[in-house]
Amino acid sequence: MLFQPILLAFNFQATLEQLSASFVNTLMIFVLTIIFSLPLGLVVAFCRMSKIKPLQLLTKLYISIMRGTPLMLQLVVVFFAPYYVFGIKLSNDYRFWAVIIGFSINYAAYFAEIYRGGIESMPRGQYEASDVLGFSKLQTFFRIIFPQVIKNILPAVTNEVITLVKDTSLAFSIAYIEMFTTAKQLVATQSTIAPLFVAGAFYYVMNFVVAYIMERFEKKLSYYH
């Protein structure tokens, strides 16, 4: 009797099919955000540590804005700014790319600070030793420093990646249909909150897989040894 109101009018098969279809959109947001934000975050980290003061200050301002304002607001600005600020009319396809751009520039700011913390934690002696051995600055960074940085920052990166899985639901703020939006629509049509629980299961499984993969990376890098 307790669960009867929840299960009333609940069509599990239809719910599963529709959520599975919209899950593809959620997965696309996740994958493309990771592909773009990780390398962009490294570039931002270099700019943040630059000795060129204007570039450093500009980068600090960018990071401050990205981390200090809601991601939902940033998505709305990215989507509407081209038209209302520049008068540019964009196609319906831009809605998807607005989501990717908004997520990528937001997460790049967080990844940049993670990278910076990892890079600055490296002992100065390693740079000096590589200089004595005749390594160039690029060789020193990518062959000696960066592999150690990756090992050290992996737990922090894992936390951000798991947060990204859940944040994909914010795409609804510019009416992009992803899994959470579909779940809300099913709640309205079926008059039951059961689709939300099914969507929650999807998110949990996705996060479980992400956490498992990242844990395998940590073990491969011998993080605990």
Terminus-to-terminus distance: 53 Å
Give the H and E element order.
Answer: HHHHHHHHH
Which of globular, elongated, flat, extended, rod-shaped describes the shape?
flat
CATH topology: MetI-like fold
State the secondary-structure class: mainly alpha
Find the CATH superfamily: MetI-like
Q: In percent, how helical is the residue content?
A: over 70%
Layout of secondary structure:
Layout: H1 4-7, H2 12-48, H3 53-68, H4 71-84, H5 94-120, H6 124-132, H7 137-167, H8 179-190, H9 194-220
Helix pairs in contact: 2-3, 2-5, 2-8, 2-9, 3-5, 4-5, 5-7, 6-7, 7-9, 8-9
Verbal overview:
This protein has 225 residues and is an all-alpha fold. It has one domain (4-220): MetI-like fold. 79% of the residues lie in helices and 0% in strands. It has 9 helices and no strands. It has helices at residues 4-7, 12-48, 53-68, 71-84, 94-120, 124-132, 137-167, 179-190, 194-220. Helix 2 packs antiparallel against helix 3 (53-68) and helix 3 crosses helix 5 (94-120). The longest helix is centred in the first third of the chain and has 37 residues, at 12-48. The protein is flat and about 70 Å long. The termini are far apart.
